[in-house]
Design brief:
By secondary structure, the chain is of the alpha/beta class. Helix content is 41%, strand content 23%. It has a 6-stranded mixed sheet with strand order 1-6-5-2-3-4, sandwiched between helices. Helix 4 links the parallel strand 3 (72-80) and strand 4 (109-115). It is globular, with a radius of gyration of 15 Å.
């Protein structure tokens, strides 16, 4: 899977440069584990690297569906930063693009449009959806957004650097 992503992005070092902030998920013993929805959250901006993160999430979701009886959902989150309101005009196009990518995988996708600070909104959606992992494209392993998510996100964070 990672090898296909490396070929798509034209890189050979993706696996070694990925950022993983691992957080063990707390097991909910009150309900049937085979009925709990497995959720993946993707921070999506329409960039090539956020598309790679979405593609990885959809691929992992597909593989999870094959291996487990649980329902699996990918949540795509596009956040309009309050300081840049002109980006809201792109929201429909960007979320439509994400839905098209998901249809190729025949996966379940839920699109979220949020307005606010990016790290806060991504963390909020991850918490609300009880996500297994939050995936996003980032510029470097020390990307500022990844560092902010490390402190506030209840699940693991996977960053795919350029």
């Amino acid at each position: 899977m990672i090898t296909r992503l490396e070929a798509t992005l034209g890189r050979s070092d993706l696996a070694s440069s990925m950022v993983l902030l691992a957080r063990p998920k707390k097991v909910n013993l009150t309900s049937n584990p085979d009925e709990q929805t497995i959720s993946f959250v993707v921070g999506y901006s329409g960039s090539a690297h956020s598309q790679a993160a979405l593609d990885l999430a959809l691929c992992v979701a597909h593989q999870t569906r094959l291996a487990k009886p649980n329902p699996v959902m990918v949540h795509v989150v596009y956040v309009v930063d309050k300081s840049r309101p002109r980006t809201i005009a792109n929201a429909d196009r960007i979320l439509w693009q994400a839905r098209c990518l998901a249809s190729e995988w025949r996966g379940s996708l839920d699109a979220h449009l949020r307005i606010g600070e990016v790290a806060t909104e991504l963390s909020t959606v991850a918490r609300e959806m009880d996500a297994e992992v939050l995936m996003l494209g980032c510029h470097t392993a020390k990307h500022q957004l990844v560092r902010r998510l490390a402190d506030h996100t209840p699940c693991s964070v996977l960053g795919l650097p350029q």
